[in-house]
Specification:
Deoxyribonuclease I, Chain A, 269 residues, globular, 3 helices, alpha+beta, 15 strands, six-stranded mixed beta sheet
């Protein structure tokens, strides 16, 4: 199974002095990645800034994947972002699929698969209660500003062969990012109590290379080493695949893209 994790930054285009056909560039990258399962972070759902695309469905159609799920972290109402509600209002489903849809503008994470999936599950993570410095990039130049964080979650896909892929996008705030990772590992450990399952934690952990000890633990280790950020001159790995048992993984070369400030990272298991 060939798996790609990619923070697509809602399909933002980065180019200097050249015109980029955004849709064509996304298609080119997905063709080059040629993956069976695509785990996305920073995904838009009917937001004006990304041309009101249902991005999970669009990416799924581009790679010919019939199985997909979008897990919203925030909703956009009256030009304001709101954390995904704890209540089960029908207008705010916890998971959006081909069978459970909504046209409410939102933003979150996705799993897209050509391989049949048995079930999905979702995990809420602690939200950072105070802000932190966040980098914003314009024309290839990154500047930082103090920003309050939004809700965070994780979504798991269970495959027929016993593989479980957990996709997430953690906070940029160091303390709560660490708390979220602990919560995530505890959830993954609970899933892994079923010895027939092989569990992986995948996604944008927002933990830079110099803090790698904060990613690894006695049960979980980052098994890939590839610089992923910023895309135009990567000097940090903040996107990871974590495993419990040291399963043999084959890292594939990345695909350079004009989409997003992250490079995708791809492995075969």
């Amino acid at each position: 199974m060939k798996i790609t994790s990619w923070n697509i930054q809602h399909g933002e285009v980065y180019s200097t002095g050249e015109e980029i056909d955004r849709t064509a560039e996304i298609k080119r990258c997905l063709t080059a990645l040629d993956c069976d399962v695509l785990l996305l972070q920073e995904v838009d759902h009917f937001n004006a800034r990304s041309f009101s695309e249902e991005q999970t469905k669009v990416f799924a159609e581009m790679i010919g994947a019939p199985f997909w799920v979008f897990a919203p972290t925030v909703w956009r109402i009256d030009d304001q972002w709101h954390d995904w509600p704890l209540g089960q209002d029908v207008a705010f489903p916890e998971l959006v699929t081909a069978k459970t849809s909504t046209d409410q503008p939102s933003y979150g994470i996705s799993i897209i698969s050509k391989v049949p999936i048995v079930k999905w599950s979702r995990k809420e993570l602690h939200k950072a209660s105070f802000g932190w410095w966040l980098g914003w990039t314009v024309n290839g130049v990154t500047k930082k500003s103090w920003v309050k964080d939004h809700a965070r979650n994780a979504v798991a896909a269970y495959f027929e062969d016993g593989t479980v892929l957990i996709n997430t996008h953690l906070s940029w705030e160091p303390f709560f990012r660490r708390l979220q990772l602990i919560e995530l590992k505890m959830w993954a450990n609970k899933i892994a109590r079923d010895k027939s399952l092989r569990v992986f934690i995948v996604g944008d952990l927002n933990i830079p290379s110099g803090w790698i000890k904060g990613v690894n633990s006695w049960r979980w280790r980052s098994t890939t080493h590839q610089l992923t950020f910023p895309a135009w001159k990567p000097d940090q790995q903040i996107d990871h695949f974590l495993t419990r048992s040291g399963d043999g993984l084959m890292l594939h070369p990345t695909v350079v893209s004009k989409i997003s400030d992250h490079l995708p990272i791809t492995l075969s298991i």
